[in-house]
Design goal:
alpha/beta; Rossmann fold; 2 domains; 5-stranded parallel beta sheet; 4-stranded parallel beta sheet; 13 helices; 9 strands; 44% helix; globular; binds phosphoric acid mono(formamide)ester; binds norvaline
Amino acid sequence: MSVVNKYEDKQHTLEESFKGKDFLTIADFSSEEILYLLDEALDMKQKQKQGIPHPYLQGKTLGMIFEKASTRTRISFEVGMLQLGGNAIFLSSKDLQLGRGESISDTAKVMSRYLDGIMIRTFAHETVEELAEHADIPIINGLTDSHHPAQILADLLTILEHKGKLKALKLCYLGDGNNNVVHSLIEGSAKVGMDIAIASPAGYEPNSSIVESAKLVAASQGSTISVSNDPIEAIKDADVVVTDVWASMGQESEQEKRMKILQPFQVNSNLCKLAKDDFIFLHCLPAHREEEVTSEIIDGKHSVVFDEAENRLHAQKALLKVLMKD
Ligand code: CP
Ligand code: NVA
């Protein structure tokens, strides 16, 4: 499967366009670049499954700064670097001088002298922007409060594998509409021409400037973005149904309040009856069963959440290769 055959003559230009770039949001990349990354990810997956060596990053080291917990992101980036012939260093912000007040700019300059790339998971999106501004090496966003672009590469790859295409599909997202996953999903859907319908309670809608910018991209790709408070309308005829936790990392104190407000947006078999018969269900994980999604759905036949988790590895290896390869 390839999504970029028609761009093959542009392969070299696209490869060059990634060199030394940061990966902070999906919006920073063109539609062609996103499709190119997905194609590279399919190639990475095939090579790994067939045992074909692919040491594109021999001798390279990725630093991985974590200010929040992680299972998938940490493991998939670390294993990805090892499979590419390089190394990864786990850096907890608690153990770094950053955690004791060393400035982001000094940290960026120092790390640039040792490393070939930095993946960072943090709170404020401005932190990764500041790191990128002062570092001489690629910075990869491994999740901030407002974006989770690496997740969305894996999601698009999973949808492509299961549906054979991305354009003209309808993706429905139900739940907390104002989080990192939704924002990157909006940007990603727009880039690949997939319709996206988001339904969340009033006050939990996505960031309006992200939506407005993405709408311009979607229009150029012939797709739509709709934001509403109506889960029934949003899920109608959906090919892909997605949700995420109701309280993201850093919002734990709001958990109880959110449980009540978000209940009508739970992904359950009642609502899913309105989706297409062959819909697939995605969740970035970790999931809270019987909150944002019932066990029946996440453990049922429509769920592809473990393919999605696996695809973090393949999509990120593609990303690491294009950003860090000489
Ligand atoms: N989906 C995701 O980013 O998982 P982790 O929080 O486990 O890294
Ligand atoms: N929205 C979730 C995603 C976790 C991978 C969070 O930020 O906690």
